[in-house]
């Protein structure tokens, strides 16, 4: 066979790969759900190792969508990330706050949320997560540890008064113990971020639900979970729940 012709074919193939790879991602794009970062406010464009990830975000060191800076900021009150004030009804207890830090680490750092990424029309991000199947124990302990903290709203995405630069309770939204606004674990995990999570009936270690907390010495358990749901998504054309 003619060598020049073969080279031309190879070049054409390489060119097609580049063009195909540059296509914008859409929810219908099923090819690449396994290891991606959402297009949001602070995410890197692609996951990669981050040796110095800080504190509770360190489990994602081997492969992360967050930068070191984001991992540090995730531990601060009213951080540069979103200017969000956890202490909007007096001090949030540390046992409760650590779950919000972990939730921030998962959101910012996880490269395993592909099947649940959706496009959105928001000024501050192009994509969000919807109905991530959070392991039931992770939701339960979040809810239990926040029992003694206070809040004034059940959806923390909208309705705040931001005039001071961080979120304050709107007038007519009274501070109550968490259980007043979140009577069940599912009410907390599903409602707080407008259904970013949908609490799973599956348990930690099942390979069928996303773990907010994990010990990285045994690898990242969410890699298996995303493989399962990406296949389910490819088969059914719908995100699994
Ligand atoms: C992270 O980066 C932002 C913006 O550059 C900066 O304001 C902030 O101080 C940095 N945080 C840390 C912990 O370095
Ligand atoms: C976003 O908003 C613009 C204008 O408001 C609209 O044209 C567009 O269809 C919206 N996109 C989505 C994904 O909702
Ligand atoms: C928002 O908070 C400011 C104080 O920071 C207050 O003066 C204002 O009345 C509040 N607005 C609403 C709509 O709650
Ligand atoms: C959830 O799990 C419990 C206990 O294993 C089971 O009884 C229940 O039927 C399950 N619910 C659903 C919706 O799968």
UniProtKB/TrEMBL annotation:
Keyword terms, alphabetized: Disulfide bond, Receptor, Signal
UniProt cross-references to InterPro entries, sorted A to Z: Folate_rcpt, Folate_rcpt-like
Keyword Lipid biosynthesis: no
Signal peptide region: 1-21
Domain of life: Eukaryota
Alphabetical list of Pfam families matching this protein: Folate_rec
Disulfide bond recorded as keyword: yes
Example GO molecular function: signaling receptor activity
Cellular component per GO, a single term: external side of plasma membrane
GO biological-process terms attached to the record: cell adhesion; fusion of sperm to egg plasma membrane involved in single fertilization; sperm-egg recognition
Residue ranges constituting the Folate receptor-like domain according to the UniProt record: 36-211
Family label: Belongs to the folate receptor family.
Entries under PANTHER family matching the protein: FOLATE RECEPTOR (PTHR10517), FOLATE RECEPTOR ALPHA (PTHR10517:SF15)
Protein name in the entry: Folate receptor gamma
